[in-house]
Amino acid sequence: MYKLIKKQGNARRGEFQTVHGTVQTPAFMNVGTSAAIKGGISSYDLKDLKCQVELCNTYHLHLRPGDDVIRDLGGLHKFMGWDRPILTDSGGFQVFSLSSLRKIEEEGVYFQSHIDGRRIFMGPEESMRIQSNLASTIAMAFDECIENPSTREYTARSIARTVRWLERCKKEMQRLNSLPETINKNQLLFGINQGSTFEDLRIEHMKQIADLDLDGYAIGGLAVGETAEEMYHIIEAVEPYMPVDKIRYLMGVGTPVNILEAVARGVDLFDCVMPSRNARHGHIFTWDGVINLINAKYQRDDRPIDEHCDCPVCRQHSRAYIRHLLKAGEMLGMRLAVMHNLYFYNTLMERIREALDNDTFDEFYQKYVPILGRRI
What we know:
Elements: E1 2-8, E2 11-18, E3 21-25, E4 27-31, H1 43-48, E5 53-57, H2 58-63, H3 67-72, H4 76-80, E6 86-89, H5 92-97, E7 102-104, E8 109-112, E9 119-122, H6 124-134, E10 138-140, H7 152-177, E11 188-193, H8 199-210, E12 216-219, H9 228-238, E13 247-250, H10 256-264, E14 269-271, H11 274-280, E15 283-286, E16 289-292, H12 312-316, H13 319-327, H14 331-357, H15 361-372
Parallel strand pairs: 4-5, 4-14, 5-6, 6-10, 10-11, 11-12, 12-13, 13-14
Antiparallel strand pairs: 1-2, 2-3, 7-8, 8-9, 15-16
Helix pairs in contact: 6-7, 7-8, 8-9, 10-15, 11-14, 13-14, 14-15
Pathway: tRNA modification; tRNA-queuosine biosynthesis
EC number: 2.4.2.29
Region (RNA binding): 252-258
């Protein structure tokens, strides 16, 4: 259940209560695709890094170790040693990202596994059953992430099918949550708004899915080829039609500046692989901007990664040391860099919430939008 505490402009400060704990929003979900954050970060580390919610990937966990294996071991929380909320995506994004390996039909999508080439099928019911086996806190509805640019005709057909799929998801989840053997009988369902960059189609689709009275609503299909300005425009267009009393999630976004811009437009929840993926290549987020730790100028730099950061890495290690580890291919280098970036993102969200609590979000936004996107 989502509780809106206060607003400053369109920016929202809230709480989201789940069976696995309450999430303070706005919040960032750390992406653990295969039930782990890439870079050697454990569930226990995540608590020290201020993570509130972890996101796991339905498609990847279905392929290995298998959702039936995770169910038999007590569900995803027990499997990975994490007792806070988990959101599982539906597999819909893989419809988009594995375009050369799939065929979309009304009943669902036929895939070729990217691991061994075997033929698999996933539709709304299959996605809900997999996510029920995983026993995540939040299940995402099965949808098609539409490529940008797409034709208006294709987009209209796709979102009409996505609404039909969503109705099937809701019906199947209600059935699964009623079964005695279901691990998490309080699993929540989020619907996903699609429509490419067609403003009127986005609005119409949002109205249709809002009528289904789901637990939360996501904006999908952005940050996949359109400009940042187009993305912000779509959020502004859709936001007035999103239920005020339900949590709002912008999928797969993004940079610290993207997050500030989207919070200012009324978004509550975010996820992105960027902080962990970039960290593994030495791209580090700081309160002064973005640095590339691989650069030679850091070879003898004995300062912490970020002199304004109190994360475990900045308290103990120098830029020179972490650069050395990354250059030497030592796994510890990736681990420390990822730890810092995740801590930075979660602290950014914490500071956004504090600014909203103190009615100073506009000042915070004006100060950090020019800073956080610059490369040092």
